[in-house]
Design brief:
- The chain is 39% helix and 22% strand.
- It is built from seven helices and nine strands.
- Strands 3-2-6-5-4-8-9 form a seven-stranded mixed sheet. It has a two-stranded antiparallel ribbon with strand order 1-7.
- Helix 5 links the parallel strand 5 and strand 6.
- Helix 4 runs parallel beside helix 7.
- The radius of gyration is 15 Å and the shape is globular.
- The termini are far apart.
Length: 177
């Protein structure tokens, strides 16, 4: 059973997505997250952060990385966020990085939402949904766990109470490896 918000793009968003896909040669050769679990390197991406710089996934090698796709309009995302903030604070000194990829159409909503939710980890802006498509995003929130070598190890679609316990266990296992 899926416990997240389903992404149903509007006709104008579908046109934008289709146009962006046609322009993005890298997206055509990358494997989706479902196909990449445990079998290869997580598809790389670079996004602008709310702090103003760019962040590239590949530059996080050597750390255990959690990528959480969220949006300000997503109810389950808002419920999950305090758990993610605690997880980040608990493990960040041990080589853990959490990246919040916001898919709101307006980056100003992401900035305001992150402040309201008390997010302390980097928030990346994916208003054009380029990275969301790269990872075959169909449910909100979606959370990925990537090991120190850059291999995608776990994908969680949706959120339900108790998932944070699973996240904690999986992060600890990957930090030990």
């Amino acid at each position: 059973m899926d416990h997240g918000s389903t992404l149903l793009p509007s006709p104008s968003r579908r046109r934008l997505i289709g146009g962006a896909l046609a322009l993005s040669a890298g997206a055509a050769v990358c494997t989706t997250a479902r196909a990449a679990i445990g079998s290869g390197t997580a598809p790389d991406f670079t996004l602008r952060t709310t702090a103003g710089g760019n962040l590239r996934l590949q530059e996080q090698r050597g750390r255990v990385v959690m990528v959480n796709f969220w949006a300000t309009w997503c109810g389950p995302c808002k419920i999950e966020m305090p758990h993610l903030v605690r997880l980040y604070e608990k493990y960040r000194a041990s080589g853990f990085q959490l990246l919040g990829v916001n898919i709101d159409d307006d980056p100003r909503n992401a900035v305001a939402g992150a402040a309201k939710l008390g997010i302390t980890f980097p928030v990346l802006l994916d208003a054009e949904k380029r990275v969301a498509r790269l990872y075959d995003l169909s449910t909100m929130p979606t959370t990925l766990l990537i090991d120190r070598d850059g291999t995608l190890r776990h994908v969680h679609r949706g959120y339900r109470d108790g998932y944070e316990i699973t996240y904690d266990q999986q992060v600890r296992e990957l930090l030990k490896a």
